[in-house]
TrEMBL record:
Residues 4-309 form the NAD(P)-binding domain. Transmembrane segments: none annotated. The keyword Oxidoreductase applies. Catalyzes the conversion of GDP-D-mannose to GDP-4-dehydro-6-deoxy-D-mannose. Its cofactor is NADP(+). Keywords: Lyase, Nodulation, Oxidoreductase. This is GDPmannose 4,6-dehydratase/GDP-4-dehydro-6-deoxy-D-mannose reductase. The lineage of its organism: Bacteria, Pseudomonadati, Pseudomonadota, Alphaproteobacteria, Rhodospirillales. CDD domains: GDP_MD_SDR_e. InterPro entries: NAD(P)-bd_dom (IPR016040), NAD(P)-bd_dom_sf (IPR036291). Pfam families: GDP_Man_Dehyd. GO terms for molecular function: GDP-4-dehydro-6-deoxy-D-mannose reductase activity; GDP-mannose 4,6-dehydratase activity. Its EC number is 1.1.1.281, 4.2.1.47. It catalyses: GDP-alpha-D-mannose = GDP-4-dehydro-alpha-D-rhamnose + H2O.
Length: 321
């Protein structure tokens, strides 16, 4: 079997490649990379995966990659994934996420292939929910509260539309917060871990700068997420959409306190008003029963282990810089 992973240089894509190599060694892995993308996350995979240069914004490049890789399965994990950036660069976010996904699906059609295709939507599509609307089911209304969320609604709906109109075997996931080693520095728990590691190393003073600590998130480990995505294309139903998420619900402040508990020196924190958003999604708790029933998946790694590993990752990066 041949798989193509877009976003293979990112956190989730690189962990998915690790998972496939570790559990399904007969599978041939192809990855889509932009020429300017840093490849630190997949440096250890050199010689074990085949990389293809291309860009989601460039249909011609994607058709060429599809014809070369001829995947049986496509995991589409590349995206502009940071909510805050989407407020300053909404058109760029829409272009990468909506047009880019459309280009990818068109490339599959132009190459005359029939793979199962994972389209990575997001919990953000549900927007702000009220207390009586959790846990969030796939049938909850979509109320996107950021340009990023709008882009994920667009991506999600285009994947449904290509299934309905052309029979493309798209399966959509709406993943709730997932993190771990290789997480981009900008996200809440990752910037906290990075700042703690810098304070420990004497590279910056206390306090850790934070935004809204009252938001509620259900945390999953990225390695559990990678396993979930593999199972999705093994056992899921084309045309369907699935919520995926962890078991443990925490406030962002509680996540910060867990990280502080691992620190080797006292850590203080202070709110930086620049880290507060024009609109924030403050409550995200998923109902993942549809996905669990379809695949048998359940999360295995507790948030404490995830956050310890994330802090270790940030310490390691800082010690090498
Ligand atoms: N980034 C950031 N967020 C902070 C901070 N302090 C508090 N927060 C709060 O922490 C929450 C989480 O923010 P992010 O970590 O940026 O993630 P997100 O907006 O929930 O989006 C992530 O999860 C989605 C669902 O899986 C993904 O779709 C998205 O790409 C991203 O990974 C938000 O309520 C945000 O206001 C901070 O210093 N930085």
């Amino acid at each position: 079997m041949r798989v193509l992973i877009t976003g293979i240089t990112g956190m989730v894509g690189s962990h998915l490649a690790d998972y496939i190599l570790g559990h399904h060694p007969g599978v041939e892995i192809h990855g889509l990379v932009r020429w300017r993308s840093p490849i630190d996350n997949i440096a250890h995979l050199t010689g074990r995966v085949t990389l293809h240069q291309g860009d989601l914004r460039d249909l011609t490049s994607l058709i060429t990659v599809m014809k070369a890789a001829r995947p049986d399965r496509v995991f589409h994990l590349a995206a502009q994934s940071y909510v805050v950036t989407s407020f300053t660069a909404p058109a760029d976010t829409l272009h990468t996420n909506v047009i880019g996904t459309t280009n990818l699906m068109d490339a599959v059609r132009w190459a005359d292939l029939d793979p199962r295709i994972h389209i990575c939507s997001s919990s953000e599509v549900y927007g702000q929910v009220t207390a009586d609307e959790v846990p969030i089911r796939e049938t909850n209304p979509l109320r996107p509260a950021s340009p990023y969320a709008v882009s994920k609604v667009g991506e999600d709906m285009m994947a449904l539309q290509y299934f309905l109109s052309y029979g493309l075997k798209t399966l959509r996931t709406r993943m709730f917060t997932h993190t771990g080693p290789r997480r981009g520095d900008v996200f809440a728990e990752s910037t906290f871990a990075k700042q703690i590691a810098e304070i420990e190393a004497g590279r910056r003073p206390n306090p850790v700068q934070v935004g809204n600590l009252d938001s509620v998130r259900t945390l999953a480990d990225v390695r559990d997420a990678a396993r979930a995505y593999w199972l999705l294309l093994e056992k899921g139903t084309p045309g369907e959409v699935y919520n995926i998420g962890g078991d443990r619900t925490l406030t962002v402040g509680e996540i910060l306190e867990i990280l502080k508990g691992f620190a080797t020196c006292p850590i203080e924190h202070a709110v930086d008003p620049a880290r507060l958003r024009p609109s924030d999604v403050t409550l995200q708790i998923p109902d993942t029963s549809r996905f669990r029933e379809a695949t048998g998946w359940c999360p295995e790694i507790p948030p404490e282990d995830t956050l310890r590993d994330l802090l270790a990752y940030q310490r390691n990066r800082i010690s090498r810089s």
